[in-house]
Amino acid sequence: MQTLAPIILFVYNRPKHARRTLEALEKNLLAKDSLLYIISDAAKNADAVENVNQVRALIREPWDFKHITIIERQKNWGLAENIIDGVTKIINEHGKAIILEDDLETSPYALMYFNDSLHRYEHVERVMEISGYMYPVEHPKRLPKSFFFRVANSWGWATWKRAWDHFNPDIDALTKHFKRKDIRRFNMEGTENFWKQVKEFKAGKINSWAIRWYLSVFNQDGLVLYPRQSMIQNIGTDGSGTHSAIDDVYRVALATQKIKYFPNEISEHKKAYEAIKHFYAHKKGNIAERFIRFLIKKFGRK
Asked: CB–CB of 144/134 below 8 Å?
């Protein structure tokens, strides 16, 4: 019998989102048999103290997991350093892990999918991540139940120590050999400007662990397993988060059944690549749709 991967849940200052995340996770079929680590970052400023305290109270409620370990930061680490440190320490102890944040709602089959995938591809070096999220592409039924794709995802994911060992926090080292053709491939032939995040990181405008993880995977010619139907719904794109804005284009329907098909061929699925590329190219919508989203972001929902 396979050993289940521990779950690492990072929480901060959104008690309503954190509760929804834990309630959905608790309903997973393997929750009662899973170890859960909850890492709570400290308040960045006085305005965040009350909400951080509310989150720290709710994570102490009697959630139904095999064992819960709570780690409370005594100072504010920030999302990037918190995740890098937490993932590194726990994955070094257990050899693998499932990573969630406090604004991610899971399908009841998510833990089963993560654990089955981690077991199946444990020794396949090129497979570096299991993604729980899947984009709302057009005609999803034309794709297999799961497939490989190049882009690392940060909205609910899992990995092994052997893959995380390739994570490099030094963005200059990660990008020093990039040529124009590499940037184009990194950006999926120009349909999504991931490279903009690289430039913003270098300029000190953002502090993203996720773009450095994608670069680390990309430099190893790594692959990420994706489900056809998403196991993760991001409930934090309502403008409430430190690193999120209001946006419905990523909204999905959660998987309602177990995934039984996993690819044997370790290569990027061409149809899936084209489907996701099409999503990125058209996600901003037409002029009217862009204007509506601009108004929502500017004035918020009623």
From this structure: no
pLDDT of 197-237, one tens digit each?
999 999 999 999 999 999 999 999 999 999 999 999 999 87
Scanning 220-286, the segments in alpha helix (DSSP H) are 270-282
160 burial via Cβ count (<10 Å: 0-12, 13-18, 19+): buried
> For residue 193, is it within any domain?
no
* CB contact at 8 A, 154 and 213: yes
**Degrees to nearest 5, angle at CA 131 with 130 and 134:** 150
Q: CA nearest 84: which of 220, 218, 210, 219?
A: 210
For residue 14, the one-letter residue type is R
Query: 237, 104 in Cβ contact below 8 A?
Result: no
246 lies in which domain range?
A: 7-166+220-299
**Integer angstrom CA distances of residue 32 from 27, 65, 117:** 9, 4, 19
12 lies in some domain: yes
SS in 3 state form for 1-37?
A: CCCCCCEEEEECCCHHHHHHHHHHHHCCCCHHHCEEE
- pTM value is 0.92
Both tokens of 136, joined, read 């709302």
Report yes or no on 28 lying in a domain: yes
Answer yes or no: are the C-beta atoms of 37 and 8 closer than 8 Å: yes
189 part of a folded domain? no
